[in-house]
Here is the input.
Amino acid sequence: MKTIRLHPGRERSLLRRHPWVFDSAVAKGGGDSGETVRIESHEGKFLAWAAFSPQSRIRARAWSFDEAQRIDAAFLAAALARAIAARRRFDVRSDAVRLVHGESDGLPGLVVDCYGDTLVAQFGSAGAERWKGVVADALLSATGLARLYERSDAGARALEGLPAVTGWLRGGAAAGAAAGGEACGNDSGEACGNADGEAPPPALEIVEHDWRFTVDIATGHKTGFYLDQRDNRKRFADCVQRLRLRRVLNCFCYTGGFTVAALAGMRAADVDDGEVVSIDSSAPALDRARAHVALNGFDPARTRFVDADVNASLRRFLEDGARFDAIVLDPPKFAPTAAHAERAARAYKDINRLALQLLEPGGVLFTFSCSGGVSADLFHKIVASAGADAGVDGYIVETLEAAPDHPVTLEFPEGAYLKGLVVMRKGDIDARHGR
Ligand code: SAH
Here is the structure.
């Protein structure tokens, strides 16, 4: 068993059961990519069993803080079973659910989403990669499902020195043939992906709240769908309904989740003269968003889809004197890490300033950041400063986070990557001062 010895004082975060060991904390020792290593304090005291990652700044990720624990197939199967069992106690209103959320579930770097009868996994760390075959088998046996698709193509893989891999890991080649499919029989843990003649991923349909969506697990973002925004879409629908909002702008709409939510809110409020404008720079995402409007029985005449840059579109709307009753801003990750926070802050501030200017008094802005490098506190400051520049004040009527199947734990606050504010615009500051 290889041992990693830390610098004096660098044991503190592991003693608090935070799972990351940074390269700067390591005094000596090493291992192969994904190999289980023993982490010791400077005095040689056991701290954790961890997966080593020779190329990553996060040099090791802890599997267990119990010296008696063996890191083996049984350990991983138990951790997966615990994560899946927890979902039964979480309030998840969909048949698409995140079963494993990495560090928060004690499985660093591993993400598993379940879309109906199909599992999709991201192996985002050296440790997860090392145990891929074991994890794949344990997932099938814990869920009773037969199909597992791999989407190990997120940027974080490169930081771990791992290549992008996508394709069926289990069961895909037989998908649609015999029920249950067949494991690909690849014990090396490699995805069977990209093999000639492989069955393409099926067109998956999910039900979220009362709404139907289709998911492209092969080429969609993340594992295909933004499951983390599930309950925020519902809150948006409820808000549109309750306030009878008519003119809605959905920025960074992807496949139209908030668009469908807005239309549902209007329908529930018997608003039949509303309009939802949806903007994204991805044409395939917009095509799917349009299809989702029809799939849910809404009138396409009440929608407009714009293939454009959001920032430029917001400026154009301002020039044209357009105004909206509700605006959603759900941009991609501008700051993957804290190092990008400053540039990201400017980008967030810019779009929030423009959106607040476009909002009618009494109107509502749902604004989000999914950047790990931007804390909830910093995000609040950014939106506040956008408001000050816009000359717009607003009530924060709600603070938002990811859906409960993307849990945050006491020990790993970094899990709280998604934060949102619901801001209701007051009258103009100038107006309030009687000017
Ligand atoms: N709200 C969506 C998820 C948004 S993901 C949902 O609920 O499903 C972010 C989206 O922003 C992606 O679809 C991406 O294509 C789009 N995007 C990224 N940069 C953009 C830009 N500059 N202008 C417009 N869209 C952009």
Observations:
- The longest strand covers residues 359-369.
- Confidence is low (pLDDT under 50) at residues 174-197.
- The pocket of S-adenosyl-L-homocysteine is lined by residues 226, 229, 252-255, 257-258, 279-282, 285, 309-310, 330, 332 (CB under 6 Å).
